[in-house]
Write a structure and sequence with these properties.
It is built from ten helices and no strands. The chain is mostly helical.
């Protein structure tokens, strides 16, 4: 004879299977929670509540939210927790996140959390710039103008990058283009 306690485990197991199936069939439900955690974490960061920000961003980042990963990388970067910054920037960059790629470029350029490697830095800046990251575009344009990051001076490449930045509405790119044209009579 079955009692209520013997009937509950199969129902519980069935319920758990149903929840897993729903999350498998509708993964946007899980992503919605991650996006909410990211947004709330970002707001907490803007209010300078770092403990709450890190907790919320960590939860979203650990579930694969690229923007949360890059933001967490940024927070750890500013706190000089470079190994953790590298870890989260890498996770984000591996998903194509431009902020993550830019963060990795900065770490490689400075040798923070990783061995200094200008070639790697340029590669990550290029990936970020390819995804219209304005700061990466600016860093590369500056490097091509001045021969920084172990790049050979190349005004043509710098102008191409600045034109791209200007087309995206980046006012510093517009100003620099104007200055280059005035100085070179272009």
């Amino acid at each position: 004879m079955y009692t209520k306690s013997l009937i509950k485990p199969p129902r519980l197991a069935s319920f758990i299977c149903e929840i897993i199936a729903i999350l498998f069939l509708f993964p946007q439900l899980l992503r919605a929670d991650n996006q909410d955690d990211y947004m709330r974490g970002l707001q907490a960061y803007q209010r300078e509540n770092l403990m709450v920000a890190i907790e919320l961003l960590q939860r979203a980042a650990d579930n694969g939210h690229a923007k949360a990963q890059s933001m967490l990388g940024y927070i750890f970067d500013k706190a000089e927790e470079n190994e953790q910054a590298f870890h989260y920037y890498q996770l984000a960059a591996d998903q194509g996140d431009a902020d993550g790629a830019y963060g990795l470029g900065n770490l490689y350029a400075a040798g923070e959390g990783v061995e200094k490697n200008l070639s790697q830095a340029v590669g990550w800046y290029e990936k970020a710039a390819y995804n219209d990251h304005l700061l990466a575009i600016d860093v590369l344009a500056t490097a091509y103008l001045n021969g920084g990051l172990a790049l050979t001076k190349n005004t043509s490449k710098a102008i191409d990058l600045l034109q791209r930045g200007a087309a995206l509405g980046h006012l510093p790119s517009v100003r620099r283009l104007r200055k280059i044209r005035e100085n070179e009579g272009i």
